[in-house]
User: Fold this.
Amino acid sequence: MVGLDMAGQAITAQGKRLLLVGGGHAHVAVLADWIRRGPPPDARLVLLTPHPHLRYSGMVPGWLAGQHGKDDGLVDLAALAERAGAELVLDRLTALDPDARVAHTAGGQSIPFDMASLDTGGIGHAAAVLGDDPRLIDVRPIEGFAERIAVLPEPRRVVIAGGGAGGVELAFALRNLAGAAPRPEVALVSGREGLLPHFAPAVRRRVAAALVRQGIALVVDDARFEDGAIMAGDVPLEPVDAIIAATGSAAPDWVRASGLACDREGFALVDARQVSLSYPHILAAGDIAARADRALVHSGVHAVKAGPVLAANLRSVLAGETPQATYRPRRHNLYLINTGDGRAIASYGRWTAEGAWVLALKHRIDKGWVRQYAALAASVRDRL
Assistant:
């Protein structure tokens, strides 16, 4: 039996090798699809990722504030891969050759594929944005952040650089750092765009009030290092024990070097089906990708929502069919911002609310997302 891939090239039944690069939020949906529905006939799945677990970033602030255990937000990629019938390769991609259809890894492996899907996330670029300093801790990659923050000596003064939802939650979490006595002093340096620039004014006002209530200083300026000191504009913020960079992500160099169509920042351009604009046998989702048809902020919510679309289209292509599923982002998404003090702030468009019930809702949603994959992986762990 011979089929055609999206570029019209022949693939033998035994040659349908799908390479998932990265164990991100979208790819766990692909693994779950293969577990629930069974793998496409004659297909071989390979998962290439540096870590055997995915750490759900939405639960990290809650862990810091003592609301979760450190590992409560882990998804067992190794167990999911086993249940999906996938080969797991614990290594990191360093180069991708879409023409030769080969992926090269940091460990020296060359992995051939017929189709590839990219969900590695972006990389940290804190040093490029702020300058380098031994106290600097980049939020990305999230696993590295969790390991560094777990062994950080109890800080007295902390600066958070970045005024998006991630930076705001970390400011609240570190102000309420579990076991810390006294609580750390925290300054949130939002950047010149200000606090939560993509959120409604009512949400920004509510968050600003919570910052004041908790004694978190908000500085609307750009952070940078100058002569070994952390600055906000021309104002020094020293002394500081730790600087947490929640300044977003950059694209790894291998994306542009591969020849994939990219946006100005070097992220892989995809259409509404998550298909690369330049190589139709390459798909991508999450922070590694940029939609060509509309501007989307890099956010975990889009990676989660794009996951089922990615799974459906990969299944279609492996079956020799044209992918049809599209990811149409909602006009508004629900954001639940943990304020670290037993409450949370909800944001949905212009609507906002605050209270312990919002935090309870956030915990239920977050734990439910992790629990669904734990249930799929459970039968594998039971056999080990």
